[in-house]
Amino acid sequence: MFSFVLQRLLQSVVVALVLSIVLFVGVWLIGNPADILISSEASEADRLAAITALGLDKPLWQQYLTFLGNAAQGDWGYSFVYKEPVVSILLQRLPASLELGIVAFFIAIAVSVPAGLYSGLRPGSPLGRGLMAFSLIGVSIPTFWQGMLLIVAFGIALPILPVGDRGQVATHLGITSSLWTLDGWSHIVMPAFSLALLKMSLLMRVTRAATMEIVRLDFVKFAYAKGVRSRKVVVGHILRNALVPLITVTGIELGNLLAYGVITETVFSWPGLGKLLINSIKVLDRPLIVAQLTYTALLFIGINFIVDILHMAIDPRIKSVMGRRTA
Amino acid sequence: MTAPFFRVDNLNTWFFTRQGVIKSVRDISFELSRGEVLGIVGESGSGKSVTGMSIMGQIDEPGRIVSGSIALDGEELTTLGFEEMRHYRGKRIAMVFQNPLMTLNPLMRVRDQMYEAIGEHENISRKDMHDRCIEALKAVGIPSPDERLNAYPHEMSGGMRQRVVIAIALLLGPDMIIADEPTTALDVTIQAQIIYHIRRLIDEHGLGMIWITHDLSTLSELADRIMVMYAGATMEIGTTEEIIGAARHPYTRKLLDSVPSRNVPGRKLKQIPGNMPSLLALGKGCPFASRCDRATDICSEPVPAIQLSATHHIWCYHPFED
Question: Which of B170, B256, B265 is nearest to B219 (CA)?
């Protein structure tokens, strides 16, 4: 168990390093920041001085090592545009994105798992068919459009929910979040639901497909043949086995929710990371782009790591395969 | 052998699909006594497994028991709901499935799967559960049962897993066990060991057993009586001697002829020409008529049962005479 975790952790670090190289080279390819940062009227001497000050005259690999060294110490440089440390800009925006993503994630899970399970167990029933129709609509409607529909419905036609911004925030346990206030919740419900809708539908279909596949298997019939009550068969045998594929998809979707809320954040004017990334790409704010892409990459690496650990905790067969490989 | 404690009368289990009604089981009747093994033999699609699942009350949509009676010690089972039937499943009628690699939940330890079976029917301490599990595992010849209790299914061989499944079936001291091709997926030596243990358990505990298979040669060693099914209907039923040694139905004869060990080595195996008729389009006559070389026009009429002895019945207009 421990050796597996350690091994997976090492793999994650290697992946992170490779990604950072790809990222660094990729950003270097998209353009020379000196052209944007330094006024075209500056003298050649000033220009060279600025380039030297920014370290842009050094070879690429040296620039990369400097970047890596600084990054490891928490120094991600200054934003070219905001003239502020990149880390502090990210930390300002991050809580908004995280809280939106996490609330959306829980809405998606809370709806999709029971709904998918039900429609997998009773695929022919009216409710089962209805849920499938709902999920088909959910995966088909573009996010920006259903977001605007929601605003029209619950913000304007039936004005019960506020539109735009995070609402009141409060700080508890060192975390500043709108989830601590009622006003914050009223602001987050609609964008979170909008963000969750696609994932909800997707996860519902995954759960349903896994359930339908597992129900047919002999061990489910055998569990019933032992006289186990239906509720226990569904939770202890069917759902438990459905979790194996479900966790994989859920992990990827959680990453997507936390990293790519751009459209929803734009539609609902949510002050999160999504808009920041688009803006920094527009103005080639290199440190900010690199930091955000690194955050996204690390997020996915971290989620995949957790997914693997969960898999191993649920499915004993994985452990034995890994044990054989390391032995 | 005592009087029958279990009876099936005129059982009909049909599946209502979009393509039409599939009459998987038609007018099946048989009885079972304590200490007796009834073999049900037939090719795939003959309705033998559906008969087993009907008894368990585990027919999935769109199928259901249309008519007939299933009675255990005089108690009617067909009128019970799925959850009411739960108290009989495992407790009084246990089931063993064909593929031991698929019968156990891959994510649960053997112990938890055994405890679960007991816990659903009896309220006893974990210590008692443990003792009973060890006893059941020993009864099916599992060495070091304590270790096996801790194991996951994938850590055991197919034969070992099937023993665990049989041990689970025995846990609550059922009146009868339905075994659906329990040794088909195992190799011959393991098969022989398992049959040995089962025979011993039947004799020791006075269990009734329904052994569903397509393999007549296993049945000849194990069964007391054999029922031959074809396309959802009974063709012939009798004691093992009557079926193996003195079969009168043309289908049973053909089935016996196709058993490899009864053929001359080196000679091509005898097959039954043709295919089983579609269960969607069965006439009222004998379903085997289309493949039978003794068939005449009358075979398309409903076939009455002919009683040849107290135990031997056939459904045929043109049985063999000897």
Answer: B256
Q: Does B212 touch chain A (CB under 8 A)?
A: no
ipTM of the complex: 0.91
DSSP A193-206: HHHHHHHHHHHHHH
Question: Nearest CB to A218: which of B82, B102, B116?
Answer: B102
- Rounded to 5°, angle at Cα A192 from A187 and A195: 140
Residue B58's φ and ψ, nearest 5 degrees, are: -120, 40
Q: Is B206 exposed, middle or buried (0-12, 13-18, 19+ CB in 10 A)?
A: middle
Residue range A235-264, pLDDT digits in tens: 999 999 999 989 999 998 898 888 777 788
CB of A42 closer than 8 Å to CB of A313: no
A225 and B94 within 8 Å at the Cβ level: the answer is yes
pLDDT in tens, B55-107: 999 998 889 999 999 999 999 999 999 889 999 999 999 999 988 899 999 99
B152 touches chain A (CB under 8 A): yes
A60 near A21, Cβ under 8 Å? no
Contact B90 A218 (CB under 8 A): no
- Compute the nearest-CA separation of A325 from chain B (Å): 16
Please answer yes or no on whether B155 and A241 come within 8 Å at the CB atom.
Answer: no
Angle A240-259/A86-121 helices, nearest 10 degrees? Answer: 150
What's the predicted TM-score (pTM) here? 0.84
Supply the pLDDT for residue B121: 93
How far is residue A216's CA from residue A239's CA, in Å, rounded to a whole number?
Answer: 13
Other CB atoms within 10 Å distance of the CB of residue A190:
23
Of A218, A232, A314, the CB nearest to B107: A314
8 A C-beta contact, residue B10 and residue B27: yes
What is the DSSP code (8-state) at residue A155?
Answer: I
B316-to-A255, B228, B305 alpha-carbon distances in Å: 68, 13, 7
Percent of chain B with pLDDT over 70: 98
SS3 A244: helix
Which of B116, B152, B165, B170 has the most A C-beta neighbours within 10 Å, making it the best mutation to test the interface with A?
Answer: B116
Q: Does A236 touch chain B (CB under 8 A)?
A: yes
User: What count of other Cβ atoms lies within 10 Å of the Cβ of residue B156?
Assistant: 19
Pairing of strands B20-33, B37-41: unpaired
Q: Average of pLDDT values for B217-222? A: 87
What is the rounded CA–CA span in Å between residue A70 and residue B247?
89
Smallest CA–CA distance from B151 into chain A, residue: A316
Q: Measured between alpha carbons, how far is B306 from A204 in angstroms, rounded to an integer?
A: 56
What distance, in Å, lies between the first and last C-alpha atoms of chain A? Answer: 12
Rounded CA-CA distance A253/A204 in Å is 12
The answer to whether the bond into B62 is cis (omega within 30° of 0) is yes
Residue of B nearest to A219 (CA): B103
